Amino acid sequence: MTITNLIGNTPMVQIQHINPNKSVTIYAKLEGQNPGGSVKDRPAYGMIKGALDRKEIRRGDRLVEATSGNTGIALAMIARTLGLEMTLIMTDNST
Predict the structure, then answer these.
(1) What confidence tens digit (pLDDT) does each residue in 36-80 have?
(2) CATH: 1.25.40.10, 3.40.50.150, 3.40.50.1100, 3.30.420.40. Which one for 3-89?
(3) Three-state DSSP string of 33-95
(4) How confident is the model at residue 95 (pLDDT cuts 50, 70, 90)?
(5) Residues catalogued as catalytic
(6) Domain range annotation of the chain
(7) Per-position DSSP letters for 8-36, written without gaps between them
(8) Measuring CA to CA, how many Å separate 49 from each of 37, 54, 82?
């Protein structure tokens, strides 16, 4: 099992106290429980896995992406797990 197996396998919780309509059940998916701590893990994995599957990239290649936050974290984590190099570019005022 790798870290990518955990992406999207996040828990769901039923929202009861703020639901005024008791005939409707509302659930929330806890995307913050993804390995990178963000919903951004899903699209990052989808982009990288899709490119690998289509043979647009291959293990050992270097990916370069401009980012300012969680997408970059997710891309770096997934790239490393799948045997890719990753260069992230951030502006000076990024946090």
Answers:
(1) 999 999 999 999 999 999 999 999 999 999 998 899 999 999 999
(2) 3.40.50.1100
(3) HCCCCCCCHHHHHHHHHHHHHCCCCCCCCEEEEECCCHHHHHHHHHHHHCCCEEEEECCCCCC
(4) low
(5) 40
(6) 3-89
(7) T---EEEE-TT-S-TTS-EEEE-GGGSTT
(8) 19, 9, 9
